[in-house]
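Input sequence (193 aa), recorded before submission:
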Amino acid sequence: MLRMAVLLSGSGRTLDNFHERIEDGRLQASIEVVVANVEGALGLKKAVHYGYPAYFAADGSQINRILADYQVDIVCLAGFLKLFAPPPELARAVLNIHPSLIPSFCGDGFFGHRVHQAVLARGCMLSGCTVHFADDCYDQGPIILQKAVELSYDDDVDAVADKVFAVECEAYPEAINRVGELGREFFWERVGR
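Predicted structure, token format:
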């Protein structure tokens, strides 16, 4: 069972999903600590409610000092809106979920509704999400899992966001379980990095 740290910046919807799936056995992991880089983030309040150690940390060095106090196998970025530089022992252990099918609509500046607006502006009929390992560049690490959704001609940005978030709720826990089964290095070696 993987021991997780969860980093977030906002409402904690992904934390809610992780907690629910850990409770019902669909996610084979434990949450050891939750850290937000936004003071007063709703996700921190949720973490406290769930009984997880929860901290605010303004920057990466503060986050890494907090993580050093916990036994963590992986770090899950859950709506964390900064490029995170982990300590060396966790360099290949940071997971992220992106709301598009990488390599499309990704990289610096592509997050949240900006991604969905770009998808609609291009006229795409498919979108989805990608769970991947994070490295020192936005959305460049090895892909663990992708899930697609069909779009309709009349979908607006909110409709696309809702469809994508629904598959994110399935994909992120599934990807974490795969990392637990196959090991982190499997994915890094798979793409020759």
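Checked by second reader. The radius of gyration is 16 Å.
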